[in-house]
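Hey, resending since the last one bounced:
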Amino acid sequence: MTEMVHGAIPVRASDPVLPRWWRTIDKWSMTSILVLFGIGLLLGLAASVPLATRNGLDPFYYVQRQAFFGVMAMLAMVGCSMLTPNGVRRLGVLGFLAAFAALAVLPFAGTDFGKGAVRWFSLGFASFQPSEFLKPGFVILTGWLMAASQELNGPPGKRISFAVTMVIVAFLSMQPDFGQAALILFGWSVVYFVAGAPMVLIGGFMGAVVFAGTLFYESSEHFARRIDGFLNPDLDPRTQLGYATNAIMEGGFFGVGVGEGQVKWSLPDAHTDFIIAVAAEEYGLILVLCIIALYGVVVVRSLFRLMRERDPFIRLAGTGLACIFGVQAMINMGVAVRLLPAKGMTLPFVSYGGSSVIAAGITVGMLLALTRTRPQGQIGDILFKRGR
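The structure tokens again:
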């Protein structure tokens, strides 16, 4: 009956899974992700060799590990993209519960690897960062709760999701990891806004965020040091931001040449947080613009496809996933050019990091699953029939 009223996309029930998946997936977004991962390996060949040399390892040790984790991420992305919306919801909620439990245990069993923030579990052969896996599950949970709150006699999903958000932000602030906390707040705000949040509440929430930021600035030396460094007009050329800024300026439009960059020898995080500085120095503005365009393709195409969806959960969760993916990339690049304070956030699929790249694969896989073409009619069908 639903198909008779709203219209449907014809589907052949006998279609095998893989052909049906390939026909309904957003191929432009998937191709963009594969190209981003390829660029990450290319940049890793340059950026990670100095670190491996300093640590007495094989020159391509980190590149090999990134390739291994990247293959796992691609498999996770393809696997998640084959899920139905109900499957995405189940995986997201279960993943959130597991990541949240790990986050709660982190203060007692985690390590900081000498970086001053307890964000990881050391597994010996690798490390695990719960907050990376928490983000996609949190967005799925938030989208589900807010979609359920729109139903007749539905639960108070907006209030429940807000309470969960505050608990997560408190745990992340204890590490401290204000960058991930800000990303969690942003993800909740996006989903709440799409769900129909009153502008008065949005304004009040923004004011509360400013107040909390001021409070953290007064009470956290770690937070205050990063804000002061960002606001200071005199940039110390011997800091990470100083090296990154100089490398970007040296690169110019075409770069200094493959393998000729010097910033990778000065920055301890050249292969992670400041990978875009290596790209800008060796390959110039051209590669940086290509990287930005690839992220833009994924985010913009996903949002356009989600605009046609009539299922509230798919619209809310998909929009949240697309936005946190794009904003994380924007934050990483914004820090490198000193538009934002230092956050310690990776560039998805490009920076080195097992937790980061696998979690990004899960995030994009869920997004691809939610933006697949489905035989359910679109919101435009309803609007068109109402207008007649």
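Residues 275-307 form the longest helix (33 residues).

Sorry for the duplicate.
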